[in-house]
Amino acid sequence: MADSENVIQVDSQRIDLKNRSLAALLAWLLPGAGHFYQGRHTKGSLYLVCILTTWMLGFALGGGHVVYASWQPGDRRWHYILQAGVGAAALPALIQGNHMRKNTNKGITSKNYEPRWGGFMAPPHRPVIEDNTDEVSAWYATYGAGYEMGTWYTMIAGLLNILVIYDAYAGPLAVPISGRKKKDDDSDDDTDAPEAAATGDSATAGSVTTGETYQEANQ
């Protein structure tokens, strides 16, 4: 039996959000997975296709180098915080970043360092120094505006998935958007209007009767 706390009603439809926390976790790991778990397959499919397509397009525009985890002087990749919103697709960058950290001493990458998986989501070799030629500069030179656009696309995909996570946890907008509530309110107003008019007529009639009685008493 569904937990009443996890069942909401929108536009006369009951939606069982099931385990909200689990749905949110699944939505983070894979866009749309939380909605599939809740049985909301249309939304799940839409989110899965749109967000992952945006992510992969951005990743391709940047030559596969726009997503990496680094928090070293000269290369504080804050963009990854937003990119990580897409979930499992961004997790290899954390593994690569930790691997490079272990092979970095005083901001300089060891000569024996070899990135995992052929450099997939690996941070650039250090040191990364502004205004000097380094691996990041080479990426910009190779991919041009595509590197910048790819960074933005992957960030946007992560941000969009944060909204998807919220929708999986809290459900859709609780206020009906079909117009039914407004129609019901209008019908209530129409019903109340004759009653108010009838009440007003009764009050007027009572006032007239009272006035006539008062005049007869004074005659």
Describe, in short, the structure shown.
The protein has 219 residues and is mainly alpha-helical.
**What's the oligomerization state?**
single chain
The shape, in one word, is elongated
User: In what order do the strands lie side by side in the largest sheet?
Assistant: 1-2
Helix share bin:
55-70%
Structural class: mainly alpha
Taking the sheet with the most strands, its summary is: 2 strands, antiparallel
Distance between the termini: 78 Å
SS strand fraction:
5-15%
> Roughly how many Å is the radius of gyration?
32 Å
Number of domains: 2
- Counting DSSP H or I runs of 4 or more residues, the number of helices is 8
Descriptive notes:
The protein is mainly α and 219 residues long. It folds into two domains: 176 residues, no CATH class; 41 residues. Helices cover 58% and strands 7% of the residues. It has eight helices and six strands; from the N terminus they run ββαααββααββααα. The strands form three sheets. The protein has a two-stranded antiparallel ribbon with strand order 1-2. It is elongated and about 65 Å long. The termini are far apart. The C terminus is likely disordered. It holds the Pfam family DUF6677. Keywords: Membrane, Transmembrane, Transmembrane helix. This is DUF6677 domain-containing protein.
